[in-house]
Amino acid sequence: MAAPPPNPVPVAYRGVLPSVPDWLNKGDNAWQMISATLVGLQSVPGLVILYGSIVKKKWAVNSAFMAFYAFAAVVICWVVWAYKMSFGDKLLPFWGKAGPALGQKFLIKQAALPATTQFYDNGDVETAMATPLYPMASMVWFQCVFAAITLILLAGSVLGRMNFKAWMAFVPLWLTFSYTVGAFSLWGGGFLFHWGVMDYSGGYVIHLSSGIAGLTAAFWVGPRSSNDRERFPPNNVLLMLAGAGLLWMGWAGFNGGDPYTANIDSSMAVLNTNICAATSLLVWTWLDVIFFKKPSVIGAVQGMITGLVCITPGAGLVQGWAAIIMGILSGSIPWFTMMIVHKRWTLLQKIDDTLGVFHTHAVAGLLGGVLTGLFAEPELCALFLPVTNSRGGVYGGSGGIQILKQLAGGAFIIGWNVVATSIICVVINLVIPLRMSEEQLLIGDDAVHGEEAYALWGDGETYDVTRHGDITEHNMETRTSTGATQVM
């Protein structure tokens, strides 16, 4: 009897293997892990580089390390308890039940978000539970990097003065009592998810929350030293652009990975993301040229960010022409609030938001959420949203109500973050001072970490006034930034 012909498919690729169950779609799994990696790269090294470069030289190490530390801390908290609070079984209409995401029985089974089944009023199923075609491990990691970047964005409001030990306590507390609430409410099957509030990829969950929480934390921490508030030039503009570039390109995973599959909607999301970001950057730069006669590089980065933030809640839900309109508005409205309103509103003047996170993320995120309620296209909505017949205001029908839903969802995120962040800051301050000591504020990185970004007066030497001369704040940095958007 002749031997059977050899199987032409290598063993590693045969579908009958235990590692390749019937429900696994290798393309979806590959794209989800790539997307997660791209989002991770936005933080490490993207925002680490951007923060370390956009601040004054004496805060380069501290600013970069706040981002670096937050990323690591979130990863551990996420898998130990926070993932299931965001995407697990329902505990409250806005919160999931805490629990670990560490065991192999949980992580290698098919991904599923148990609270996402959408029902009609009569109890019939409208949209089945979300069950992506890859393992829970991919879902846990993808959502983890979103949680991490939210804390890092928030850090931009308190750079240059927050006590690092207080930051170490703040990260797990804010993740637990603020981020998980927004994530479950809007993504994990909470009340805003089922009500039909649109947040495709985090305009509310990530950007509005980080911007509002950042402004709130900045209020409780207090301002930078008077010298730093008066003069805060970036120490490396070119390296700042490198960090910004990683942020921009990484947004392909940020928005392209959120349909939980490599489908036609994810392609729309990636294209719209770049259209809106490019438009916003150009508009911001044009406004700087028109009103301040100089094209600010920092301003261009701010415009890029506001464009990326604005398109995020509607990336896969709007058409390309709408992405251009959103880019025009995201390049102009946050510019107006940052350059005009901020300088005239006493409250904003008193709160020292170091990198203007309130404008670039809270204002742009809320703007994007409302514009999504206006421009969300019905066919694209049907590809992603659990509530059938969803549409934006320009398409008639229930579209007008959608705008009201977007405003109400934004109001919930704003209110929760103001209250939760305030309580967290007050509690931490009872144990650990939120603000650095005056000596640390004067010296910077060397006093806080015993390390400096650049050894400008010797090979590894610590600055010593008795050896290196009396180099004051004003003559240590002889070049003053004249960029139009230099508001830090």
TrEMBL record:
InterPro entries: Ammonium/urea_transptr, Ammonium_transpt, Ammonium_transpt_CS, NH4_transpt_AmtB-like_dom. It is a multi-pass membrane protein. Keywords: Ammonia transport, Membrane, Transmembrane, Transmembrane helix, Transport. The chain crosses the membrane at residues 30-52, 64-83, 139-159, 171-192, 204-223, 235-254, 266-285, 297-315, 321-341, 362-387, 407-432. It is found in: Cell membrane. GO terms for cellular component: plasma membrane. GO terms for molecular function: ammonium channel activity. Residues 30-454 form the Ammonium transporter AmtB-like domain. Belongs to the ammonia transporter channel (TC 1.A.11.2) family. PANTHER family: AMMONIUM TRANSPORTER MEP2. This is Ammonium transporter.
